[in-house]
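Today's session is about reading a structure prediction critically. Students often jump straight to the picture, but the first step is always the sequence itself: look for stretches that repeat, for charged clusters, for runs of hydrophobic residues. Only then move on to the predicted structure, which in these notes is written as discrete structure tokens rather than atom positions. Here is the chain we will use throughout the hour.
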Amino acid sequence: MDATVIRRFIESTQNVFGTMLRSTVTFGAPVPTSQATSCGDVSGIIGFSGDVAGAAVIRMPMATAAGVVKAFTGEDVSSESDDFADAIGELANMICGGAKSNMESGSVSISCPQVVLGKDHKVQKPSDAVSITIPCNSPQGTFAIEISIRAVGAHSSASRSHHAAAG
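Below is the predicted structure for this chain, in token form.
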């Protein structure tokens, strides 16, 4: 995975936490997800398609998620509330949207956020993608950003050129 992609997620996370939560984030060294010890009770998942394919997962323990949602909304929100999942989804959307907007790939789209709640749940990674985990620490607690993507731009560009020449 290109170090630029990792840098885009770090920059976007710093920006979102600074702007929306008035908070700071420190980052540990990125590691292959297979070697990461991140576990979580709450995950915000965003899919990527186009010249970059795969997904990013913002994964956190419930205590961190509750702190993040409180900082984000300004109030305590029960994890049973739809507003809780909406806030986590919006946070994932802003982080991934910011990272996407700074990617140098030509055409990248992101999906609507999906939120999973459940103690130590597993999010399956695409088998053909490189998967990196970035450990994060904020005043609200620890969390991780799991990025599992692959570049498909060269194949897509070749296909577009072939179809254009054939048409």
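Discussion point for the tutorial: The chain has one domain: 3-160.
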